[in-house]
Each structure stands twice: as structure tokens, then as C-alpha cells.
Design a protein that fits this description.
The complex is a heterodimer of chains A (about 675) and B (about 250).
Chain A lengths: L18 H4 E6 L12 H8 L12 E5 L3 H13 L2 E5 L17 E2 L11 H11 L6 H20 L14 E2 L9 E2 L5 H19 L2 E4 L2 E9 L2 E9 L5 E5 L2 E4 L20 H8 L4 E2 L4 E7 L22 E5 L16 E2 L1 H5 L9 H16 L8 E4 L1 H7 L1 H19 L8 E10 L2 E2 L12 E3 L17 H21 L13 H19 L6 H15 L6 H21 L11 H25 L13 E2 L2 E2 L3 H4 L1 E6 L11 E7 L14
Parallel strand pairs in A: 1-23, 2-3, 2-11, 3-7, 11-19
Antiparallel strand pairs in A: 4-6, 5-6, 8-9, 9-10, 12-18, 12-22, 13-17, 14-15, 14-16, 16-17, 20-21, 22-23
Chain B lengths: L2 E7 L8 E7 L8 H14 L21 E3 L2 E2 L21 E6 L7 E3 L2 E2 L2 H10 L19 H11 L6 H5 L6 H12 L8 H15 L8 H5 L7 H15 L7
Parallel strand pairs in B: 1-5
Antiparallel strand pairs in B: 1-2, 3-4, 3-5, 6-7
Helix pairs in contact in B: 2-6, 3-5, 5-6, 5-8, 6-8
Classes of the chains: A alpha+beta (about 675), B alpha+beta (about 250).
The complex binds flavin-adenine dinucleotide (FAD) and FE2/S2 (inorganic) cluster.
The site of flavin-adenine dinucleotide has 46 residues of chain A, from helix 3, helix 6, strand 8, helix 7 and strand 17.
Chain lengths: ~675, ~250
């Protein structure tokens, strides 16, 4: 296996920040892939899954954490099947999960039109878009099950946009040349999330699912090598308690907020998956972070986050920057010939619809080269003039009204009159807990779904594929694969609450809360988060290099040390305390950030969103398939021995059958 | 800009609440109201004081988590805009801004500006759902829904569940919320089977926890999702329709 090649270091390095001092190569992982053509993998696997008799299902308790598209779907579907489901989320009600904020749409290769779409084409787009660092088999499942996702979500209440003939409407998204994105105005996530949350409500009313709101997962209980429960903190009373079960499913979303200001909801965080990692679940490709090309730029110090302007806008909007540096003219006064439509010119085949990583890098390049616009010169234009001329303002309004309103609300400017100003922002994390084809992590009994996982999107996610993966995982994958695992546990009771593994995990969580409260330093947790964000933005963003990443790791270590010496958490632990919540999340980011940078340093190639300046051809990411065609799945460093403290990089080799390896080309 | 903030503080559901006065001297017009609270909290933490508990998540007007009362108006001075989208530019230099939790009998205060709005979810649990199990739905392309109906359904389905309508209503009614769901599901073909049953059970649950409609329409002005006032009529229409059908009829 070529992965092993990377170990051939000299072993003489003493620099604690050298790659050999930071990581050691672990084992090759088995993704438990069906041994058939990827196209047939899912059918084959389902055929071989063990089943649980309907009469026995009530006897199995399953914990689902998260009520986003993945979690609400998994919980509702497992509840419908008759399992005893316990659902946890830190929100007050299920519908608030971050999925609600998704805008543009959900892909599905239903191929009802004659634009030549198909499941095979969907897989090709997904695999190529992900720059060959995801699993082909998973992409097939995504396409195959994606078809009935639309049927199901429509039936349970998502009012998808319709053409005048009454059929489902579609639009195009970046990285594809067909029109397979289903949508509801600019609020697709909201409609899907509400439908899913309501389906969960139906199970709550039916008594199959029990809802535990305002509860934050802070640890996983592992006993006899199996995940057997979780420890949560009640965010209102501060009480720490355990819940045990036969299986645990984490659908806790992405970790993009590690960058401090991203397009994610303020509360989205990495703690659930990070705690799972600390208990032995491998973390896949942490450095694969998507920077979305079209977000609102930062306009002031107190701006609390970046706001996404959906990719769907690139269907009818054209991206440009002035040809002249520091052009301060009103954009409407800049004549056509002085506008540089750089995506259209550089990538004639895909134009404004190139994949996100390509668009982001090009926009960043323009801004860094001095062609940025706006008061802080940190943006480019997204212009709807041509679209409005071609289709009329009414059509544009129907397609994007809430996005235009949102932009207007936030900036005071009307996109019908003046082009939007947009800039890249962290948006999505392709990395997440490693799992096999059955969505089971390296801890048996611990499953993962949605953005918290990995697999489908490789090194770069195509727009509108994440709502799809959340729905497919939740409704049409976990309900097959979790029972297969449960079948082997028939007759076993969930772990007793007085089991030492339970009491010890509770004690660990309580001790950590206590530790956070007792530092009594001089800065609130947000102060450290902001500093961390600055490091990540500078060294681990649209382009990365060895020197910067090495420096970042040193800085993160210093910051982490400073945090535990100087963090100030006001208030007590036995009540609602948002500072304490933030502190716990920031503490986890400070650890994950190091792993993210180590992964970026380790991965000695460019792939998708991971762009290393030392690996490029003509400004495009240059993959190294000979040495890096695998998923990195990191394990916790050993506490003692010759490799103590080193991050352990396990690897799952990736093979491509249906979509042979080739360099991406969107020109 | 200088702003005086009078902020509601309350330690818990049972505790006595009070307004606390703070001054912000460096507010800027483009700040949102929540960013103003961030600024205040930053200042409080620096001074070793307990920051104000308030809720938010998406900060882009879609999740419905934010929800505070500004100078007596749910979400703030601008109509149809959630707190996270309201801006300091609505105030003048030196103005006093009173920030309180959403006021409604059915929304008990949890702490400071955070209230418990799960009552709305109980209305949904009572019947705002569609009885279709995963995998059993018919092909969505074979079911035609007119463009107009899909758009109309969306007008109602846009509700973000923030509860501003309840708070704006002198009676604390949840008609706009309940009616939006009824009007939305009325247009979804698979949801027709339980139309009457849904109306009966949702309205019954609504009346159990929330007040009667005041008929003055404050709710629609406060609504960040611009749910049309017709939603209120939908409650009565769906209720009456269900009343005319025999109790054994679900559709
Ligand atoms: C602004 C924006 C727009 C987007 N638009 C699109 C789009 O148009 N199309 C598309 O395909 N994708 C889009 N995405 C991506 C997509 O929305 C997300 O990847 C997806 O919704 C994630 O869903 P999820 O179910 O995995 O997690 P989430 O929806 O993030 O849900 C996470 C859940 O986990 C719970 N949780 C997390 N941690 C804990 C814990 N420790 N304890 C208890 N509960 C916990 C939360 O309460 C929540 O319920 C967008 C993303 C953003 C940021
Ligand atoms: S924070 Fe989500 S609507 Fe205001």
C-alpha cells in the first residue's frame, strides 16, 4: 500500500512540529464494502443485512443525537419501524436544527427530463466534484436512495417548487451540467427540516420516540468495546446524567464553526464527534473544509457570523470584479468592457457554475490581487442584471425572493438595483467521524449520519448534496444498517446505570465541567475562539502550505495552553450557563484544530478544497493518486510508548471503478 | 452611538424578575440587535458580571430561535423582521431600549430573555403531521400540484415557529401559527386523509394552552415569515369544515 510510503521519514527529526514528530502511521482500515460493482453495492448489502422481527423491535433502545435532517429522519424512521428511540438535542425544539438554514436545494438524479441525467451521471459528478477522495459505493447509494427522498419529503409536507404544468421544478447547481436540484424558493432546508421534525413529532405523539430537548451530549459510554450510551448535561438545570442503549447514532452536524465566523448557526459545534473521537472513533479527513464562494463579506467588527448567499444564485447571477485595481466607482457605472467575468472567462464550460472550491479560490485570488470591492475591499460582485433582462424581475423574485430580502435586510442594498457583494466563507466540513459502508464508526454500536460523518463528498461537496446525504442517511440507510447490528444483541439489556463504565463517564464529565469553572482566568471563552479563528483563517483556509500549517500548530498549542490557564467562565454549573457551554465547545475546537492542521500538513497533495500551494498545476489542485488515494482516519495518540502523543493516521484505501481516476477539468 | 439598555434579568421560572440598566457607548448602526446584546455581554464578562442569557442560532431569520421583546414589540421596531435581522440603525443616539423576553402566559421564562415555547410544538404533535411512513410515498412527479398551490402552500409553510404571533397578541393566541400549518397541509395531497381529524385535534390542543384570537391582527405585523392574516381564517374554516363532517371521518 502506497500509504505506507509516507512513513519513510528519516526518524532523526527533533523538531516537535515536524511531521514525524506529530504523527505516526496506523493501520489499514476495512470499509466493509460489498464485493460487487459499486452500482450494485447497496442492493447486495441490503440483501445480506440481518433483520429484527417486528415483535422484538420494542426491546431495542436506540439513542439518536441531533434532530437535523439526518437525526430527525433516522429517529422517525426507526420509530416508525417500532424501535424504542430516545432523541437528544441541545435545541429547545427539533425544528431548529441547523439544517433549517439551508437555502438552495436538494439534489436527486430522478432524471425525469431529457437533459441526460442518470444515477451514473450523479455518481460521476459527486465523485469528480469530491476530487476522488470519497467512496464511490456511498455515492451510488446516495443517488439511488435520493430518488425516493423527494417522494417522501413531498408526501410529509415539503412543498417543492412546481412548474406551471404541475410537475416538480428543478434548477442547476455548481459542478454539474444537468438540472437535478429540487427546491422550495431559497428555503429548501427549512421545508425539509420542518417536514422531518414534524415526522419526528408524529412518532413522539405515538410514543415510539422520546424527546430530550436542551440536553447536550458531552461523552459516549463505551464498555466491552461497544458504544452503550451517552452522558448529557441538561442545559437548563446543569444536571449531568447518563442514558444507556443498545446503539447510539450521532447526527450532530459539522464543525465549520472552528473558524469562529462561518455560515453555520451560532450553536453548531464539534463536541459530540470530538468526544466520540476521544473514546476511540476515528476522525476522517478533518482538513477537508469547504469554503463557500458566495457569502456576505464581513462588514464590521461585531458582525456575529457570515451569511450564506445560496449557490443557486449563480444560476442567474454573474460573478465579476473590476478590471482596474481599487476601482471605487458605483458598480452600475462600470461599463461592460471594464468588468472581468473571471469565472466565465477562465472556465468557459462551467462558467459561474464551477464547483465551490474552484470559485472560492478564484474569488480569493481576485481580492488578494487588489481587485476587491466594497468598503473593506474584501468582496467581488454577484450581478443579476443579465438574469433580470432575460427572465424579467418577476421570475427572479420568485426564484430568490427570500435571499434578496435577506441581503436587503442585512446590507440595506437592493440586489435588483445594485449587484450583491460576496466573498468566500467556511461553510461545510467534508471530514467527520470515519464510518464503514454501514455508517458504523470504529466503535461498534456507534453510528454516524449527516454532516457529522464523511464518505459521500470526498474533498469537496457539490452544492445540494448535503441535504440529500442527511435525508438518505436518516430515512434510507441507518434504518437498514442499525437493525443489522442490533440483531446480534437480542436478549441483551442496555447497560445498568450503576455500571462502573456509566458512573465513571459521568464523573469524567463532571470533572471537566468543574475544571472549566475553576480556572478563573481573565478572558471569556469567546476571546479564545476568536483567536483560534484568526489562526485557522490565515493558515488553514483556501490555500495552505507547510510553513503556515506548522506555524499554526505551534500557535494552536500555545493558545490551548493559554485557554486552560486563563479562561474565565462566569456563573455556576448547576443552572443555565451559556458561557460554560461556549467554553466546553471552544476547548474541543482547540484540540480538533490541531488535528485539522496536522491532517493538512500530512496530506502532501492538493485535493478539492484542500489546496496546497506546493501542489498545483496551472493554479488547479494537483492530486497525487499514487500516494494519497485514501481516506485518512485519525486515532487518539497513545499516552505512553515510543509514539506517545503522536496523532495516529489510519487509512482506508479508495478504489474507483465506475468513475476512473482522472484530473478534474472544468475548463 | 450611545444606547441605554434596560434588560430583563430573571434567574429562573419561579424567581422575581427585574430590569437592569446598562450603557453601550460604541454601538454602530449596522449592528443587529443580537450583536448589540453580544456587545453588552462582552462588556459584562470583562467586568466579571453575569452575561444576559438570550437565545439565537442561525442569525439569518430562518430558525426561529431568537425572539425578544424590544420596547414592547416582539422582535423589534421593524415589522416582519426577526430580532436577528433588526438593526441598531432603527434607534437614535442616546435612546433607551427596553429588552424583555417574549411576554405570553404560555411562554414561561426560563432565564433572563429565554422563554419556553414548547407549547407550539405540542400543537404540532397533536396533528400537524402527515401519516406517511418512510418508503411508502407515491412518486412525487405523478402527483400534479399547480404552481399556484405550491407557492400558496409555501406562503404558509414559511412559518419559523418563533412565537412572535403569540407574544404580539393581547390574548396570547396561537391562531396564526396553527392556521399556517392547517393552510399549508391543506395543499399537500398526502395530507388530505386526515384533514378533519387534524383540524379538530390541533385546534383543541391550541385552545388548551393558548388564548382566543383577539381579531386585531397584531400577530401578522410581528411575524418575521410574513404569514398572511388569512391563516387565522384558515383555523375557523378548517374547524367548521371538520365540524360539518361526522366525527368518524378523518379526511
Ligand atoms: C447557510 C447554509 C446553507 C446551506 N445550504 C445547503 C443547500 O442548499 N443544500 C445542501 O445540500 N446543503 C446545504 N447546506 C449544508 C446542509 O445544510 C448541512 O450540511 C446539513 O443540513 C447538516 O444536517 P445534519 O442533519 O447533519 O446536522 P444539523 O442540521 O446541523 O443538526 C445537528 C443536530 O445535532 C444536535 N447536536 C449537535 N451537537 C450536539 C450535542 N453535543 N448534544 C446534543 N445535540 C447536539 C443539534 O441540536 C441539531 O439538532 C447549507 C449549510 C449552511 C450553513
Ligand atoms: S436566530 Fe434564527 S431566526 Fe433569528
Amino acid at each position: 500500500m502506497s500509504a505506507a510510503k509516507a512513513t519513510e521519514g528519516k526518524g532523526t527529526a527533533v523538531d516537535p512540529l515536524s511531521l514525524d514528530a506529530l504523527r505516526v502511521i496506523g493501520q489499514e482500515l476495512d470499509g466493509h464494502l460489498p464485493d460487487v460493482h459499486p452500482r450494485d453495492a447497496w442492493t447486495d448489502r441490503k440483501l445480506h443485512y440481518n433483520l429484527v422481527n417486528p415483535a422484538n423491535r420494542r426491546r431495542f433502545k436506540i439513542i439518536v443525537v441531533g434532530t437535523g435532517l439526518a437525526g430527525a429522519g433516522a429517529a422517525a424512521a426507526l420509530g416508525e419501524l417500532g424501535y424504542d428511540v430516545e432523541v437528544f438535542s441541545y435545541h429547545d425544539v427539533p425544528r431548529r436544527a441547523h439544517s433549517v438554514a439551508a437555502q438552495g436545494g436538494i439534489n436527486s438524479p430522478r432524471a425525469r427530463k431529457v437533459d441526460n441525467d442518470s444515477i451514473d451521471r450523479f455518481v460521476k459528478d459527486t465523485v469528480k466534484g469530491g476530487d476522488y477522495r470519497g467512496r464511490e459505493q456511498d455515492a451510488y447509494r446516495l443517488g439511488e436512495e435520493g430518488i425516493r427522498v423527494i417522494d417522501h419529503m413531498q408526501a410529509i409536507g415539503a412543498a417543492f417548487a412546481r412548474e406551471y404544468g404541475g410537475q416538480l421544478a428543478t434548477r442547476s447547481f455548481g459542478g454539474v451540467q444537468v438540472s437535478r436540484t429540487y427546491y422550495t424558493r431559497g428555503q429548501t432546508g427549512q421545508q425539509l427540516e420542518i417536514a422531518a421534525a414534524h415526522a419526528l413529532s408524529r412518532q413522539v405523539a405515538a410514543g415510539t420516540c422520546k424527546l430530550h430537548s436542551r440536553q447536550e451530549l458531552l461523552d459516549i459510554i463505551v464498555k466491552d468495546g461497544r458504544a452503550q450510551g451517552i452522558v448529557v448535561r441538561d442545559l437548563v438545570t446543569g444536571k449531568v446524567r447518563a442514558m444507556t442503549a443498545h446503539a447510539v447514532v450521532l447526527c450532530t452536524g459539522g464543525y465549520g464553526n472552528i473558524y469562529y465566523k462561518a455560515t453555520l448557526a451560532k450553536n453548531s459545534n464539534a463536541s459530540a464527534i470530538w468526544r466520540a473521537y476521544k473514546r476511540g472513533a476515528f476522525f476522517a479527513n478533518p482538513c477537508f473544509v469547504q469554503i463557500h464562494p458566495t457569502a456576505l463579506p464581513l462588514m464590521s467588527q461585531w458582525q456575529s457570523k457570515k451569511t450564506l448567499m445560496s449557490e443557486s444564485l449563480r444560476n442567474d447571477g454573474r460573478i465579476w470584479a473590476p478590471r482596474k485595481k481599487d476601482d471605487d466607482r458605483d458598480p452600475n457605472d462600470i461599463p461592460e468592457e471594464e468588468r472581468f467575468y473571471f469565472l466565465e472567462e477562465r472556465y468557459p464550460a462551467f462558467g459561474n457554475l464551477v464547483p465551490r472550491d474552484v470559485a472560492s479560490r478564484n474569488i480569493r485570488e481576485r481580492i488578494d490581487a487588489g481587485y476587491g470591492v466594497g468598503p473593506l475591499k474584501n468582496a467581488v460582485y454577484l450581478d443579476f442584471r443579465t438574469g433580470i433582462e432575460r427572465l424579467g424581475a418577476k421570475v427572479i423574485r420568485e426564484r430568490y425572493s427570500n435571499l434578496f430580502d435577506m441581503y436587503h435586510e442585512l446590507t440595506g442594498e437592493d440586489p435588483f438595483q445594485t449587484p450583491m457583494r460576496i466573498a468566500p466563507s467556511v461553510h461545510f466540513t467534508m471530514g467527520g467521524l470515519w464510518s464503514d459502508y454501514d455508517q458504523m464508526t470504529s466503535i461498534p454500536g456507534l453510528f454516524v449520519g449527516g454532516e457529522a460523518g464523511w464518505g459521500y463528498h470526498g474533498a469537496n461537496r457539490l452544492g445540494a448534496n448535503s441535504l440529500l446525504s442527511g435525508c438518505v442517511d436518516g430515512w434510507f440507510t441507518l434504518p437498514y444498517s442499525v437493525p443489522n447490528y442490533l440483531a446480534g444483541l437480542l436478549g441483551k439489556e442496555p447497560l445498568a446505570h450503576d455500571d462502573p463504565a456509566v458512573t465513571q463517564t459521568i464523573a469524567d464529565v463532571e470533572a471537566r465541567v468543574e475544571r472549566l469553572l475553576s480556572v478563573n482566568g481573565s478572558h471569556g471563552p469567546d476571546y479564545f475562539h476568536e483567536k483560534l479563528g484568526a489562526i485557522m483563517d490565515r493558515y488553514a483556509s483556501v490555500s495552505r502550505d507547510v510553513e503556515g500549517l506548522t506555524k499554526a500548530i505551534g500557535l494552536i498549542r500555545e493558545l490551548r495552553e493559554e485557554f486552560w490557564r486563563d479562561v474565565k467562565v462566569i456563573g455556576e454549573g448547576d443552572r443555565l450557563n451559556q458561557e460554560l457551554e461556549t467554553a466546553g465547545r471552544v476547548a474541543d475546537y482547540l484540540e480538533l484544530a490541531e488535528l485539522l492542521c496536522v491532517d493538512a500538513l500530512d496530506r502532501d497533495e492538493s485535493a478539492g478544497a484542500h489546496f496546497r500551494t506546493d501542489h498545483e498545476i496551472d493554479g488547479e489542485a494537483a492530486r497525487d493518486d499514487e500516494h494519497w488515494c485514501f481516506c485518512s482516519a485519525w486515532g487518539v495518540p497513545a499516552e505512553s510508548g515510543p509514539d506517545a502523543g503522536k496523532h495516529i493516521r489510519n487509512y482506508e484505501p479508495l478504489t474507483f471503478v465506475a468513475v476512473p481516476l482522472q484530473q478534474r477539468n472544468y475548463k | 452611538m450611545r444606547l441605554i439598555l434596560e434588560v430583563w434579568r430573571q434567574d429562573g421560572p419561579q424567581a422575581q424578575g427585574r430590569f437592569e440598566t446598562h450603557e453601550i457607548t460604541d454601538a454602530t448602526p449596522e449592528m443587529s440587535l443580537l450583536e448589540l446584546l453580544d456587545r453588552l455581554n462582552h462588556q459584562l464578562v470583562e467586568q466579571d458580571q453575569d452575561p444576559v442569557a438570550f437565545e439565537s442560532d442561525c442569525r439569518e431569520g430562518i430558525c426561529g430561535t431568537c425572539g425578544i421583546d424590544i420596547n414592547g414589540v416582539p422582535h423589534g421596531p421593524e415589522d416582519n423582521v426577526p430580532a436577528c435581522g433588526q438593526h441598531v440603525r432603527s434607534f437614535h443616539d442616546g435612546q433607551t431600549v427596553r429588552i424583555a423576553p417574549f411576554r405570553a402566559k404560555s411562554f414561561p421564562v426560563i432565564r433572563d430573555l429565554i422563554v419556553d415555547r414548547t407549547g407550539l410544538d405540542r400543537i404540532i404533535q397533536a396533528g400537524g403531521t402527515v401519516a406517511v411512513d418512510a418508503g411508502t410515498a407515491p412518486d412525487a412527479d405523478t402527483i400534479r400540484i399547480t404552481h399556484h398551490d405550491a407557492e400558496e402552500a409555501l406562503d404558509f409553510a414559511a412559518c419559523i415557529g418563533c412565537g412572535a404571533c403569540v407574544s404580539a397578541c393581547p390574548n396570547g393566541a396561537a391562531y396564526l401559527f396553527t392556521g399556517a400549518k392547517l393552510a399549508h397541509l391543506r395543499l399537500i395531497p398526502a395530507a388530505q386523509q386526515e384533514r378533519s381529524k387534524r383540524a379538530r385535534s390541533m385546534v383543541a390542543q391550541m385552545e388548551q394552552e393558548f388564548g382566543p384570537c383577539s381579531q386585531i391582527g397584531e400577530c401578522a405585523l410581528a411575524c418575521p415569515a410574513k404569514i398572511p392574516l388569512r391563516a387565522i381564517a384558515a383555523v375557523n374554516r378548517e374547524r367548521i369544515r371538520a365540524g360539518f363532517r361526522s366525527r368518524s371521518k378523518e379526511n
